[in-house]
Structures are given as structure tokens and as C-alpha cells.
Amino acid sequence: xxxxxxxxxxxxxxxxxxxxxxxxxxxxxxxxxxxxxxxxxxxxxxxxxxxxxxxxxxxxxxxxxxxxxxxxxxxxxxxxxxxxxxxxxxxxxxxxxxxxxx
Length: 102
Prior knowledge:
The chain is of the alpha/beta class. Helices cover about 40% and strands about 20% of the residues. A four-stranded parallel sheet has the order 3-2-1-4, with helices on both faces. Helix 1 links the parallel strand 1 and strand 2. It is globular, with a radius of gyration of 13 Å. The protein starts with a strand and ends with a helix. The mean pLDDT is about 85.
């Protein structure tokens, strides 16, 4: 199972990632975070060396960057935990357009 977590460097996102990697060690977790005021890469330090974890400093409003990650990782699930209102709308539009193509 491959899971994308948007906003994963924030408080809720990082704890979700820790939980998932602990409970499901065979899952692949890809964290997409722009690292604005709400995200801090140091919160993910405990999992940065985990081979089933990948961090990508990505703005989810950047359609090309998100498409590229989808092509590389082929996620089964997108868990959207961004804190910015406009990012919610953008991530939903991008995910819908990608999954509609499958």
C-alpha cells in the first residue's frame, strides 16, 4: 500500500505518519509538504531513514510536481492534512483529475 500524506510535516500529519509506519511497517508513505509556517522538517527526523518513507518538499498547488510524484510512486491513497484552505481545494482537484485518468 502506497500512501501520500499532504501536510505531513505539521503536527497532525507527522503523528499520522509515525502511527502508520509503526502499525503498518510494510506500507510506503510519501510526505508532500511545502514547509510553510505550519510544517517543520525536523518533526519527521525519526522516520527520515526509514526505507518506506519519502519526503518531498512540494507545493500541492504545483500540478506538474504532484503529477510527477504520482508517476513515480503510484499512490493507493491520498491522505490530505494540509492546513491552508486554498491547498485543500487544489489537492482535491489534482487528486480527482489523476484518479479519473486511471
